[in-house]
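Aggregate trends can hide what the representation actually does to any particular protein. The sequence in question and its structure tokens are set out directly beneath this paragraph.
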Amino acid sequence: MRKTKKIHLIGDSLFARNEGYDKPAIETFLLKKDPQLIIYNSSVAGDATKDVLNRMSAILSVERCDQVIILIGTNDLALNKQVPLPEFQENLLKIIMSLKEKYPANQITFLSPSPVDEEKQHYRNNRLIENYAKIIMTVSQKEECHFVNLYQLFLEAANQTSLSQLLEGSLDDGLHFGSSGYSLLADMILEQL
């Protein structure tokens, strides 16, 4: 019998939104696919890297898990509150250093932000997402953490369906996704365990 896995999700609204479920949508989809999973979710809608850093002591107080999954950067790159790339990179490094106080690098996975539907999303664009994703990848790999390019994964999945369908959530704002996107995200997270 397989050992029950514990995961800790850290991020912004993409990990925190309920999308009509009684708990965050990502938790709902993960538990549908693996009912034995134990999930701790420290995600807060609107968070950027500096907000995660400000909450790091609370984040580190969560019970030790088998894997920490971080999805951050979507709010750092938003044009109306953009964090410059050098500051973003420094914040990521500080997050990793803090997490490494409790976890080895191989238990830390960073996800890039997913793409947006540029026809609906006015504060973010896919060129910016690619630039911030490259920083996340570079810092993660340099620090020997895992990195998953969620941006690329969503674009590949959009070959089977449409990107707008993957990103169609209850807000339908081109950023926050619904069932199709959360199912894809849950599959990807489970592959990391």
User: Anything to note?
Assistant: The chain has a mean pLDDT of 92. The chain has nine helices and five strands.
